[in-house]
Amino acid sequence: MAGAVTPPSVILASASPRRRELLTLVGIAHSVEPADVDESIHADEAPAVYAERLARAKASAIGASDDSSLTIGADTIVVIDDRVLGKPRDRAEAAGMLRTLGGRTHTVYTAVAVRRGRRTVSAVEHVAVTFRPLTDAAIASYIDTGEPMDKAGAYGIQGFGATIVQRIDGDYFAVMGLPLGTLIALMDQVGVRYDFGRLS
Question: Per the confidence metrics, is the pTM higher than 0.85?
Answer without folding.
Answer: yes
